[in-house]
Amino acid sequence: MKILVALTSILGFLMVVLPGPLYQYAGVGLGTAFTSLRYGVYVGGAALILIVLQVIINRKNISWGSTIVYAVLALIAVAMPVSMMSKASTVPPIHDITTDVTNPPEFVAIAPLREGAPNDVNYEGGDITKQQLEAYPEIKTQLLPQPVSEVYVAAEKAIATLGWDNVTAGALPNTLEATDTTTWFGFKDDVVIRLTEKGDNTLVDVRSKSRVGQSDLGKNAERINAFMAELRKQLG
Predict the structure, then answer these.
(1) What are phi and psi of 225, to 5 degrees?
(2) How far apart are CA 125 and CA 147, in angstroms?
(3) Alpha-carbon gap, residue 225 to 207, rounded angstroms
(4) How confident is the model at residue 102 (pLDDT cuts 50, 70, 90)?
(5) Distance between CA 192 and CA 203 in Å, rounded?
(6) Residues 6+ away with beta carbon under 8 Å from 183
(7) Residue of 127, 141, 128 lying closest to 97 (CA atoms)
(8) Phi and psi for 234 in degrees, rounded to 5?
(9) pTM
(10) In which band, very low, low, confident or very high, does the pLDDT at 1 lie, cut at 50, 70 and 90?
(11) What is the enclosing helix (H) or strand (E) of 190?
């Protein structure tokens, strides 16, 4: 049973951890990667059951050090996908979030980089807008008490601090564009920031959109909120 526990724990762990790097660097398809995640949960669950049985049946001769290691690997195999599925159940299955749903900021500089991506640069509106407004009522245009020139510089610093790739060259006036690459799967999500003068103040609109996938697991809304927080920090 010790060998079976070791094999199932390690296999389940690898089935959950490796899909991201394999998709990102080895050309494994997204469908295959997600299938591996799904079955990794089952393998990890089987490993946990075997570990419990091993503890019950062979308690006196058990090697607690290795058993704890295998239990941790099995727990990771179960917890990571379950956490993703739990998150998906609490957010709408959308991937294009914007502070201005009636006139969303436009991707221009980034548009060529998204050619061939499953999700194009267009904003669908309709039911997508309805779902966003219900799920993320806090995502709205922000009015800042600084001039556009000052906010623009702060926005550039915020992009750099957040580790995004600045792709602003060729963007519309008073607009910044950037790409955020996720760590695990290497998904590229794009952001456009539009600054509009309003007297001595500045209206800030942000749009964040995933290049692939139907649901973003709430990541785009989190990204917009993170940018707004960092922008305010940069402005002091």
Answers:
(1) -65, -40
(2) 30
(3) 11
(4) very high
(5) 14
(6) none
(7) 128
(8) -65, -30
(9) 0.89
(10) confident
(11) strand 188-198
